[in-house]
Amino acid sequence: MSFFAIMFALLLEQVRPVARDNPIHGMLRAWVRGSSRNFDAGKPQHGWLAWALAVGVPSLVALGLHWLLVWALGWPVAVVWNVAVLYITLGFRQFSHHFTEIRDALESGDEPLARELLAQWQQVDASELPRSEIVRHVIEYSVLAAHRHVFGVLAWYSVLAALGLGPAGAVFYRLSEFVSRYWAYKARDQHQPASASLQKAAANAWTVIDWLPARATALGFAVVGSFEDAIDSWRNYAQRFPNDNDGVVLAATSGALNVRLGGEALKTTEALTYNGATPMELGIDTESTPGRDPELGHLRSVVGLVWRAVVLWMGMLALLTLANLLG
Description:
By secondary structure, the chain is mainly alpha-helical.
């Protein structure tokens, strides 16, 4: 069932992307705000309680509806529910328009527009970036977005689907990632700032939750890219990035494509939103990995790498589904 649910969700998302202001995401944001507002009293136990409510309740609701549909109407209707959950949590089109617009601007030679689009996407100062650095940052942001919006969701959904918990896995992963960014942003909000305990709970939970998916993504990139170079870069250069999980993904990407990643970080503006705050994006410089200087052709290579990794995932799920049916 998980194979067909993922396949239909990806196809549906390509045909009709999830709207940025859709009511489902709006309700989830309101739920996260309410959880922190009502339970964040500043102590560690309150931080974990707010996190558990913000992430756990929607995950359990998704799972409960799945089981209810299986019991009351049968698995075909439950598959439709799984597709709906994956459609909201999984997909390229939730971020790929940024990538496409910047790539098109660079291809047309309009570097000022590319800098402006990059600044709008990540709320950073990109006014002084040379062309190669624009490409580097776009690669880094896009690969991390693909990991969080696609491969991480696939990993949690697929593993838990084997236990009948697939919808909960998809919601749990995406909300865990969202609250870690959102509450970091709210810490700078003078109206209702998130406490240090709440931020720490969300950040620590996200590090643990993303540990295995990050390495699964890195391994997938290695398999569909330059395997030896990707593994070597993963082993030797992942620690150059400030976040361990992000570093694994970026180092493997660097080796798989033979492109230099890491270096001077872009500094965020005061208008930083919850649409993508990683340690790199918070202005922490890193050491570069070995590889060729980023060029426009590397953007096309990134697209190919990501889609080949998706095909790899789907092929593995198809084989597991076939084995289950024959067994």
